[in-house]
Request: fold
Amino acid sequence: MAINFKNIHIGNLIQQKVTENQIEMSRICNFLKLSEDEIVNMFQTENLDSDILLRWSKLLKYDFFRLYSQHLILYAPPVGTALKKEVSNMPVFRKHIYTKEIIDFILELVNGKEKTKQQIIDEYKIPKTTLYKWIAKQPDRTVKKIKNELSQL
Reply:
């Protein structure tokens, strides 16, 4: 299932991961120190505080923050090169580091003919050469994915 990185409903995604991992509600309540009603309300909430999201990430062994990072990679405007560089003590991250999930998402758009290659290049600011390399490597990715699934059986 492809995740919609444009509109992230974190509660639904957490609930999906809880279901996939078959985590019992009592374990969740104990770990988060919350009631079952509070947990169910979280599943219906579109946004959660970062400290709660961190706890969910630890419990479910899944980086929910990465969903937001992927949103920034796909939808944030590119940083202007002509802007004056400001000195900051904050860590600096490279913007264009594409995860497997992002590459799969983009390739799904191309293969499903939901967007043209040019639309993807324009909308997501992915370099043309990068997109064409992903497309060229796609059969290899499919073979590797099948081998991974077979090795897990």
